[in-house]
């Protein structure tokens, strides 16, 4: 059993190397956003270590920059990271029934899109040590990259910081454009979200950016789910 766990740990570490490198690059640009929110390198490192999620952290840093209350930060982070609840539910089915509960908790701590993908692709029962191996590269890459991004934001000229900030928006475009092109419903939801965000910022400026984001996310996602639910046929 010990040798099996060691092999699973090594496999996870190997498969997690490209993920960790990718996280380092993306989180570096995220660090620029954290710097704008007033976080220092240690705070950014700790935030990324405890919340390995680009959308959730970006939303959190945005409402922090808007001087939002703690409850607002907690809610927007929960909404932005809600998809991981579904991923965790699916991943739990990959574990053997006799897998201890504490392993499920530790693995659930770092369920990201990429780690979820490589975990689900594994054949047979999933050994939690495989996830631990992937986390050994993902978490340091993400948290160190964020801290270095904040440091770079403090020493680089304003023009360079502005250029790096654009990279994060490019990451989000890379996430939403492919599915929007394949699915008209998603494409319409993205277009509507852009329009409603503009209108909300124009006519509801007295409401904080964090609150507007929470309201729009719940309303648009809820309407899309009610009008165009995902069925077994189109999964």
Summed up:
The chain has 235 residues and is mainly alpha-helical. The protein has helices spanning 2-36, 41-50, 54-65, 70-80, 83-92, 101-108, 113-120, 128-155, 158-182, 184-203, 209-227. α1 packs parallel to α8 (128-155), α3 packs antiparallel against α4 (70-80) and α9 packs across α10 (184-203).
Shape: globular
Strand content: under 5%
| Count of discrete alpha- or pi-helical segments spanning 4 or more residues | 11
Low-confidence stretches: none
Mean of all residue-level pLDDT scores = 82
Q: N-to-C terminal Cα separation, in Å?
A: 37 Å
Return the structural class: mainly alpha
Secondary structure: number of strands: 0
Q: What about the largest sheet? A: none
The topology string of helices and strands comes to: HHHHHHHHHHH
Helix share bin: over 70%
Rg estimate, integer Å = 19 Å
């Amino acid at each position: 059993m010990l040798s099996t766990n060691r092999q699973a740990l090594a496999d996870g570490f190997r498969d997690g190397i490209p993920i960790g490198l990718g996280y380092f690059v993306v989180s570096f640009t995220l660090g620029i956003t954290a710097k704008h929110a007033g976080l220092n390198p240690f705070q950014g490192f700790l935030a990324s270590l405890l919340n390995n999620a680009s959308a959730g952290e970006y939303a959190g840093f945005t409402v922090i920059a808007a001087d939002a209350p703690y409850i607002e930060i907690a809610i927007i982070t929960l909404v932005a990271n809600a998809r991981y609840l579904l991923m965790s539910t699916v991943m739990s089915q990959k574990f053997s029934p006799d897998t201890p509960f504490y392993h499920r908790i530790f693995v659930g701590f770092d369920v990201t899109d990429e780690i979820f993908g490589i975990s689900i692709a594994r054949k047979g029962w999933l050994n939690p040590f495989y996830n631990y191996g992937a986390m050994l590269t993902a978490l340091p890459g993400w948290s160190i990259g964020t801290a270095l991004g904040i440091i770079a934001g403090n020493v680089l000229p304003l023009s360079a910081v502005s250029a790096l900030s654009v990279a994060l928006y490019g990451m989000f475009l890379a996430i939403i454009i492919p599915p929007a092109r394949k699915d008209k419903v998603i494409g319409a939801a993205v277009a509507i979200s852009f329009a409603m965000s503009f209108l909300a910022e124009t006519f509801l400026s007295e409401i904080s950016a964090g609150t507007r984001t929470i309201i729009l996310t719940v309303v648009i996602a809820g309407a899309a789910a009610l009008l165009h639910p995902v069925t077994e046929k189109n999964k």
